[in-house]
Amino acid sequence: MQGERNPVGGDTRPAVRDAAPPTGTGRRGAVVAALMLAMALAALDATVVSTAVPQIVGDLGGFSYFSWLFSGYLLAVTVTLPVYGKLSDTFGRKPVLVAGAAVFLLGSLLCALAWNMAALIAFRIVQGLGGGALQGTVQTLAADLYPLKERPRIQSKLSTVWALSAVAGPGVGGLLAAYADWRWIFLVNLPVGAVALWLIVRHLHEPERKTTARARGERRTGAEEEATARARGERRTGAEGETPPRAREGETTPRAREGETSARARVDWAGALAVFACGGVLLTALVQGGVAWPWLSAPSLALLTAGLVLAAVVVVVERRAAEPIIPGWVWRRRTIAAVNLALGALGLLMVAPTVFLPTYAQSVLGLGPVAAGFVLSVWTLSWPVSAAFSQHVYRRIGFRDTAVLGMGLAALILFAFPFLPYPGHAWQPALLMLLLGGALGLFQLPLIVGVQSTVGWSERGTTTASVLFCRQTGQTLGAAVFGAVANGVLATRLGGAGDLDSVTRALDAGTAPEATRHAIAEAVHAVYFGAACAAALAVLVLLLLAPRKFPVLGD
Fold first, then answer.
1. In angstroms, rounded to a whole number, what is the distance separating the alpha carbons of residues 38 and 195?
2. In this predicted model, what pLDDT tens digit does every residue of 262-320 receive, in sequence order?
3. Phi/psi at 435 (nearest 5 deg)?
4. Measured between alpha carbons, how far apart are the two ends of the chain, in Å?
5. pTM greater than 0.85
6. Are 53 and 227 contacting, i.e. CB atoms less than 8 angstroms apart?
7. Among 53, 99, 321, 510, which is least packed, fewest CB within 10 Å?
């Protein structure tokens, strides 16, 4: 088999053929439509409840617990991502996506039937258990359906759907709560999800895969491991990115055989349970710390300690498992480890605009909720356009350097925010958001497409779930860290009088002096400076850890 030229930087590599595409090109359009509908549902339900909280609380009560309507859903999505990624590599994408969609729709129906706040929170968690499958498996299937040259197109479409759905969520929720009933927020998922589910069942066809020693959970011999490493294009003791030996014409590579699985494959249920427990405890500590209780209180310390103990348990369980949920190679391979850390930094810095910019627009600029939402939403215009354009850049300079360029620009834009004049005009932060969306489009899509292209079918689900999990965890960590930063700045400027939430409520009521607006502006400026530092850290990680040319496998 002749070597092929790598389309992302000129690195010559053998065309290691992985598994066949999961469906014919004639039915690909229907499957893509289903993926876009599923992605829209997962993104919409993360934000759709926010504007309907008054109506929900008025009907069900439980105001002191309503924040769990958001936290419970996001926690469930985050902790299930690694599990669904491994299951999709073991049993195939279709059964995982169908099961996840069914759970999501069941959760939506139960949410619409909730009789009190506790039941609604519990059913939102059920919804999130299905949402994790939608979010991770959709991204993996997109890479399965399209060859490397065409992946930017589908990924930019999914990015557009995700961004528009997330931004439209509060508006849709507010309209349904005001003119219909808040329960319709969840009921509208049923027909849309049913169409997506039907399209997947009807049109997505994956090739049957045979059972191998790897799928059955048996440990392979050293010779088998060496053969797999050669097929992957790596030397077991060499540096990543070396040109591998060419495969012989007509030879079936161990890499392709690794992708063959069957229903008899073992599942690391102990590892899945440990990941659930560890992720749930640690993320709960981050979400509720500084909100439901002080950071140094007994509940925070107890949750953090329990989370660290469970993290040690996860390491022990996963090291002993034949087919771990979070395999060690996710962090041993330089390319995947670098993308994990970089996407985690992306999740962290995104908290600055998505959480704090609306407060800044309303409290400092004096805008209404709709206008404040527009200031934030303008980045959804530039992000997908930049993402689609990024393929022309990374084909010339490579995945890593394109991402470094995008995140370097993002760091400069975030660092410019604290220098905006006070109180300023709405177009100024809106312009920065437009530029930020363009920079992040150059960053995220090349990394996702690149890292998916370095693995075969049998590892793509785990790899995709790993980077999405790190991005979600970064967002959770960013909300906790930047919330503490903002409250700390306010306490310093106002002499310890209140936190960001209480100060914002005072502004809404018209009872806060001008000095309070200055304090909020300084708090948000500090958050943006922290986000710029996170962007700089992502650039540093990519430069120091990621190989300049990703070891891309042939289609």
1. 10
2. 444 577 788 888 888 888 888 888 777 766 677 788 888 898 899 899 889 988 888 88
3. -70, -40
4. 13
5. no
6. no
7. 510
